[in-house]
């Protein structure tokens, strides 16, 4: 009786439902909380430092060959949000992005895509005066080392391509408002 019980418990504990969850964290920003001016844009009427926060992730899904990371304004008054940053082909063994101005130094092999203004590079948060917007960092674990798109792809095309190769994703949502 003991052997079947031990076997059953070991199977349950090794199943995916007991595996630690894929997670995205930051020492610079907190999920669900307002961000500092450091992470605001330095254009479009905003006077921030245009920095990307340090971001780290843990418990990478099995089979991950690369990652894509996006920053998206869920409340932009466009009818479809606003893409502030898109980077992909982040090597699968990387578990951290160093923050800094315009994304800092990205890991070797990482591709920086276009934003919704049609240019490459990071654009910090810059909601309309009197509004608070939700901004979502999304990290997606991918089943390919390289996405079949290049740095000239629109963020929407990158997002569609990411979906086709998604293993799992995690988000970190922050708030930004201006008076």
UniProtKB/TrEMBL annotation:
It comes from the Bacteria. Residues 1-19 form the signal peptide. InterPro entries: PEBP, PEBP-like_sf, YbhB_YbcL/LppC-like. Keywords: Signal. Gene3D superfamilies: PEBP-like. It holds the Pfam family PBP. This is YbhB/YbcL family Raf kinase inhibitor-like protein. It comes from Photobacterium swingsii.
